[in-house]
Each structure stands twice: as structure tokens, then as C-alpha cells.
Amino acid sequence: MLKGLEKTGVLMGALILVATFALPFIVVKPNRILQGQGRSLIEALPSVSGIALAAAMVIVAVCLLIRLPPLARLAIATAGLLAAILALGGAAHAGLPPSNTYARVSPGSGFWLLLFSLSLTLVDVIARLRLSPAARLVLLVIAAAVIGGIFGSGILADISVIKEYANRSDAFWAEMSRHAMLALGSMLVAFLIGLPLGVISHRISWLRAAALNTLNILQTIPSIALFGLLILPLGWVAAHIPGAAAIGISGIGTAPAFVALVLYSLLPVVANTVAGLENVPREANDAARGAGMTDLQRLVSIEFPLTFPSLLAAIRIVLIQNIGMATIAALIGGGGMGVFVFQGLGQSAMDLVLLGALPTVAMSFVAAIVLDALVDFSRAPGSEVRAT
């Protein structure tokens, strides 16, 4: 390989060329369910627009092959990504037959491969830039604003996924709220239970082994199986304990999904609490004891602040895990974005599947970036609390 070539750029450039010339950029379907006919990037856009965009993608691919400054690569990949997204909207508008309300235009495998390769290039460049936590958050806000502007402009209004959203906008936001409630609420309850359990487990060695082993066993149970196992006991509680049904406890629905997510969340919380407390410098505790602090005062004023980065890491693990797993809650009536995923699978409507899957991926992605930045903030020099 020539010295002037970028190793990752060779692969990304090849993927861009394959997506541009060998795969369908859009798929035109007679309705939302039936299979459609693929059209390449050049065929999908009217007049010379397709040829011009294909030529632009060739230029992007060639530029990625060459060793360029990171900021230049960032600008090139961003321009290519925006061009592909805007071209998708134009191709969808051009591909819809006139006065046909049943026809649908979906992104083809070529678009998804372009999206993947250019996004991966952006992630690679951002990682090489070693941006500060604040810069990463600013970049996230800018990206969110640009994406929001694209959707708000209506450029993508003719894409099949957007049409599915337009037909279900009220249900979409209701299920999105329920999904967020499941993920965030279960994380909060897991911390209310797991934080004290982690502190006690750190203090009592035999309890630590028992607690971590039990929680490890819970993690090995498949999520759908655990949801099913909780149906019977929660159904019994709803039927035999006065007031339980009135507060929402039942054998199916949100309750078993919520409980299952809490159980899955306990291991990261307890394990990270124990690990964080074990890493507290002995000198800090000795100084606190010498200053006359009680065990509770040391825990609150010394150990918890020094354990904070470990607790933030636990929040990151739990939240991303719960955002993904809450999708399965729809199988037992728990709601969330999984409602659209499983409806789409049942109807063989992949655009409906994407309506549920894409926001879930986006939520996980945003949560990962924000919490990674917060973890880095907490570990920055001068952010730790010192015993005095």
C-alpha cells in the first residue's frame, strides 16, 4: 500500500463507490408492504443531478483515500453525508408516481451503506481529534440542530418512514414517552436499590460475593424469558393484594417490563459501586478518620465524591442497556418504541420497523455521547474531591 494512502480511507472509499454504483439508492414500492424496484443513485435523481452527485461521491471517496488533516476529512465526510441525505429526499419526491397515494419510496441498500461508511468516517475522525468533553457536547448539539432542521424543512417528507410517522405522530410521541419512562425510571429505581446494596457489599465481603453472583445469574436470563417469568407473580400480586392493581401492577403491561429492567440494571450499579469504593485511596480515609469523621460522614463527604466517575459509568451502562431492552417490553404490552417494531414485523412493513428502531438507536447514541462526556468531566484534573 502506498505511504500516502489512509488505511481506513481505503475501506471507506471502496464502500462509498460500491454504494454509489452497484447498489440501489432508493426502492420504489407500489404500497407500504409489497416489494419494490431498486434504482441506483444516477437513476434515482432527475436530469443530470444523479450524475453530478455520483461524481461528487467519487471525489469524496478519493479524498478519503489520501492522508489529509483531520479537519479536512471531517468537512469532506460531513459534506458527503449531507449530500446523501438531501439526495434521498429529492429522489423520493422524483420517484413517487403522480397522484398515487399508495406508492412508497424507501431508502435502498446503497443509501444505508453510504450512511454507514460516511458516519463511520466521521466517528473515526472525531476520535482522532481527541476533542474535549465540552467540544463533543457542542458538536452533538450542532448535529442535532442540523438533523432537526433537515426533518423540519420537509425535504424528507416523501420518504416512506416519514409517511409512517405522519400517520402515527400522536402514537409515536406517546410510545416515545413510555419508552423513556421505562428506561429512565428503571435506572432510577435500580440506583435507589443498588447503591445501598453496593455500599453494604463493600463493607461485608461474604455479602459481596453472594450479591454479585446472584445478579450475575440474573444477567444470564434472556430478557424475554425474564419478562415471561414475572407475569405470574405480578399477576398474583395484582389479584390478591388490595390496591396493587390500582397503582398499575399487573401480570402483563408496563409492570413486569419495569421490574425486569430494574433487575437487569442492578449488576452494573452494585459492581461499579463496589469497584469505586475499593479504589478510594486509603490515605483519604485515614485523613478523614484522623479528622474525627464518622463512617457516614466519610461515605458522604469522601468516598461518594471519589466514586462519582464510577457511578457515572454505571449510569451510562444501565441507560444504554435499558433503552435497547425496553423495545422488547412491547411483546408483553409494556409499550415503547417496540410497538412499531413488532407491528412492522407482523405486517411485513419494514418502514414501520424503522420508525421504532431508528429513534431507539438515536436515543442510545445521544445517551452514550452525553454520559461519556460527563464521565470525562468527572475524571478531569481538579474535579476530584480531596480529604482535608
**Overall body shape:** flat
**Total number of beta strands:** 3
**Tally the helices: what do you get?**
15
Name given to the CATH homologous superfamily of the largest domain? MetI-like
Helix content: over 70%
Describe, in plain words, how this protein is organized in 3D.
With 388 residues, the protein is mainly alpha-helical. 74% of the residues lie in helices and 3% in strands. It has a 3-stranded antiparallel β-sheet. α1 (7-21) packs antiparallel against α3 (49-65), α8 (169-203) runs antiparallel to α9 and α12 packs antiparallel against α13 (295-325). It is a multi-pass membrane protein.
What's this model, at a glance?
It is found in: Cell membrane. This protein has 388 residues and is an all-alpha fold.
Question: Which features characterize this protein?
Answer:
3-stranded antiparallel sheet, 2 domains, ABC_transp_perm/SBD, MetI-like fold, 388 residues, 3 strands, 15 helices, mainly alpha, 74% helix
Write the layout of secondary structure elements.
Layout: H1 7-21, E1 26-29, E2 37-39, H2 41-44, H3 49-65, H4 70-95, E3 104-107, H5 109-129, H6 133-153, H7 160-167, H8 169-203, H9 205-220, H10 223-240, H11 254-278, H12 282-290, H13 295-325, H14 338-347, H15 350-379
Antiparallel strand pairs: 1-2, 1-3
Keywords: Membrane, Transmembrane, Transmembrane helix, Transport
GO biological process, one term: transmembrane transport
Domain ABC transmembrane type-1: 176-371
